[in-house]
Amino acid sequence: MTIKFMKRNVTLIIGAVIVAMLVLMLTISFFYLPHDVNEMVITDRFSPPSSTYLMGTDNFGRDVLSRIMKGSQTAFMVGAVSILFAMSIGVILGSIAGYVGGWLDELIMRMVDVLMAFPTILLALVFIAVFGVSTTNTLIAIGLRAIPTFARITRGGFMQYKEFEFVKAARSLGSSPMRIMFLHILPNTMSPIIIASSLGFATAILSEAGLSYLGLGIQPPHPSWGSMLREAQSYMTRAPWYTYAPGIMITMSVLGFNLLGDGIRDLRDPRRQK
Amino acid sequence: MDKKISVVLIIALLMTLALAGCGGSPSEPAEIETPDNSQTPVAEEPVSQDGGNIVMVVEQDIDYLDPHLAAASGTEEILFNIFEGLMHPDSTGAVYPAVAESYDISDDGLTYTFTLREGIKFHNGEPVTIEDVKYTMDRIMGTETGTPLRSELANVASVETPDDSTIVFTLNQRDSAFLSNLYYAKIVPKTNEENFNTFPIGTGPFKFAEYLPEQRVVIEKFEDYWQEGVPHLDQVEFRIIPDREAALLSLQLGEIDMFPRLPIDRVAELGEGFKTIEGSSNMVQLMPMNNNVEPFDDIRVRQAVNYAVDVDEIIEAVAFGYGRKLGSNMSPVMAKYYKEGLENTYDYDPDKAIELLTEAGYPDGFDLTITIPSNYQFHVDTGQVIFQQLANVGIDVEIELVEWGVWLERVYQGREYQATIIAFTGKLDAYKVLNKYISTDRTNFFNFENAEVDELMAAAAQELDDEAAVEMYKRVQEIITENAPAVYIMDPEFSIAMKENISGYVLYPMYAQDMSTVYFE
């Protein structure tokens, strides 16, 4: 059973392991960091990985490992907050659109379509240009772009379930629309929403890294994988470890959450299995 | 006009990012003399070889081929080879007569008479006539259109051409910068009117050959150049490669021959077969504090910040030690105007800083937002070091990165900021370096106000006695340091890297790539 399960769900296992490792690192970072993330020891700049500096140091002599660990807080915070934001708004919009239908459905979904027309980075850039650079704005900007996915998935589920017998039964018993929507139908649509969250999490981390790379995400000297990558690129030949560290972290976290999302989908949706 | 200034600043800052600029060699502090009437630059000693082609990398595309519309410093340095004004700068920053053969200044300092150089030709073979010179001046001053193309000749009341080889300028008021301003009035032939921005023609050592946007500008040797012995090269290509890493790779692969503004700390990566010339950039990197905004409206707080910032550490951390410490708004490259000794006024002293902060009513420091344009990693890095240094005296810094356009609009023009980090590019004229401290000046985004500075600057602009003017400029620097409207950080040094067999390159204390003296050994 276990082996069979593992064979069938390699992606899920790999994804779960990667994410678990990331979460472990994140947890440790709250209690322990090898060095102060902003402490500059100029004499130790560009030290290659050693026992003192496990991932080496950067151009200011800051410990790369500590900054990577601290950066994971940034990445997870951005992922979690922006996805929660997008999910809460997206699910509400999608529920209303799917359940009520008619002109309200048209109105909401066309607005969502408009949102969907923007590439994430572009939308975020515009948003930040108008409202200014701040962590909150970065979160909102990334979250905004994730709304359409949730709205569409939820609407699809609602369209499908609102004609089901159990909904009709609830209605005939005099349940309020709110009760039907959020107590009867929503639980049935949760699984695709969870999958979308996992995939969206990966996208959000990537977007934050992209924005920080452009210098418009988390503000220095606070560490973020994207801004570390940007700083590291000038020293690519001199201190390759400085480029590898944030690069690998971004790759692994995006890969991990994508695999996890795919894995859950395979698990929950038997039709996709061979 | 605003836009023009913006473009100049954009390029100014691009330079900073690249630790760059065009510098005079710091090892020989050039005494900048006012040239006598007939001075021409010393011709290069005979060289072993003429001919050859050189590819030089430039970071940014040019903005205009029309020399009167071009405002970007990056364009300036290329057009330097194609055009000359009545006066042209030499490598010390002084100007010598180029299209003019000689000049004469009246005793009251209001009338300048220039004699046209005999036999001087445009690149298309036509002789330069006094009509062309007059046409150029009219075009810049907007005599017919009513809108001047550049501000450099704003002080000119009238231009007369009494005969075929003489042109007379009458000024509204005395202007010590007039001669050097004439460099910007690059002489163009009236017959080329239609093609100024597509196929420019001038009198410089090289003629324009080709421009492919975002790819290259090619110039070729002008055989009939009025100076004997130059240029040596047949052709120079300025290849536009905005990404420094890519450019560096191309240099290592031998695809390009010269790399201006290479940060010195990267020279080691070049390997065999290259040589470098080091120089200061004639730039002023600084952290302006908005003098109108709390808590910086209190001079004690500004001085405290100056004491709390360890400039030596910034130079070491950000510029790898290759920068010259500054104490006021003047680079040591401007040897004649540079006021020595100011750089140690606020030596690193955190205790003194805390003392001053306590006196000013901020014993526990305060929250400070430093707004930095995000495209200049050099300034961002500087900000990260200052973040740490100010934390030591209890000042809680938040760095806010903004796009360049936002910076210009909000900080530079709107003056809505607490502190920022930026660099000013060098100017040849001390007045243009210091005029941003005049209380009414449009570019005074420090909101700096000092009656004595205002008076001194007004007097210096009209002072014809050079030494007296220099003394005034030096005094202005002192006052600025005392009042600490900003933390003055450094003039970054840079190097120009080239293949080993290239010789004759001369550094200028301004944005110019003079290719006329370059030759292959």
Radius of gyration of chain A: 22 Å
CATH topology of the domain at 284-493 in chain B: Dipeptide-binding Protein, domain 3
The first-to-last residue Cα distance of chain A is 17 Å
Fraction of residues in helix of chain B: 25-40%
Q: What are the low-pLDDT stretches of chain A, counting only 5+ consecutive residues below 50?
A: none
- Text of the CATH class of the domain at 284-493 in chain B: Alpha Beta
Sheet-strand content of chain A, in percent, reads under 5%
What's the helix count of chain B?
Answer: 13
Coarse shape of chain B: globular
* Tally of DSSP helical segments of chain A: 10
Quaternary structure state of the chains depicted? heterodimer
Q: Hey, which two chains have the biggest interface?
A: A-B, 23 and 23 residues
Rg of chain B computed from alpha carbons, rounded to a whole number of angstroms: 23 Å
The number of strands of chain A is 0
Number of DSSP-assigned strands of chain B: 21
Largest sheet of chain B: 6 strands, antiparallel
Give the overall form of chain A: elongated
> CA-to-CA gap between the ends of chain B?
45 Å
Largest sheet report of chain A: none
Q: Mean pLDDT of chain A, rounded to whole units? A: 88
